[in-house]
Amino acid sequence: MIITYHGVQMIKISSGDLTIAVNPISKDFKKIKPVRFGADLVLVSRNLPEFNGVAEVTRKDKEPFVIDGPGEYEIKNVFVHGTESKSEYKKQGLNTIYSLTVDNVNMIFFGALSDPKAKLDFIEDMESVDIVFVPIGDEGVLNYAEAYKLAVSLEPKIIIPVHFEALGKKDSLKNFLKEASSDASPIEKFVFKKKDLEDKNAELIVLKS
To answer: Does residue 57 contact residue 42 with C-beta atoms inside 8 Å?
Structure first.
């Protein structure tokens, strides 16, 4: 499996012939040039340009299945659970937290979560949490301290921060690393197999955007 980060909260997941886009950036978001590719599945946490660029990950020969709200879904042996939460990012609105299982790897995407005490009842149905993606940018989403506390409470194998720097919060990543007592250096992509995660314990992975 290969995971790459493309700014704000856009994550691309590749596993064999399967491509998943999480919160793809739209061309209407002028701060970052969107990445374009064909996806099989798209997850959208908020209806904002920096989260809902479905057109950018759609190709004539590849129409993705789009999930943009709460519910339970199964697409191509991928299991998705969307849970409603509140967001204060830019304007008050609904945010969807997603749990995603691909090739027995369990992932959680918090989206534009602003409430560090949000209900995460769906965790009870997961055997383990392998990877969590947490927003650390403050200003409507979790700040670095809230994000780290929430992430480690889930006892994940891997923690990947998103939603920082490109939105103007230059110190968010630095502070998050300090909070985690980590000196992790950014990498281009995270390439792994399920067995590679077995001995991990809240290891911080920072991806270049």
So the answer is: yes
**pLDDT digit string, tens, across residues 84-115:** 999 999 988 999 999 999 999 999 999 999 99
Q: What is the CA radius of gyration of the chain?
A: 16
Calculate the CA dihedral of residues 111, 114, 116, 117 and round it to 10 degrees: -100
Q: Using alpha carbons, select from 99, 97, 129, 123 the residue that is nearest to residue 112.
A: 97
- Report whether 37 contacts 2 (CB < 8 A): no
Query: Which domains does the chain carry?
Result: 2-204 (3.60.15.10)
Do 101 and 78 meet the contact criterion of CB atoms below 8 Å apart? yes
Q: Beta partners for 135?
A: 162
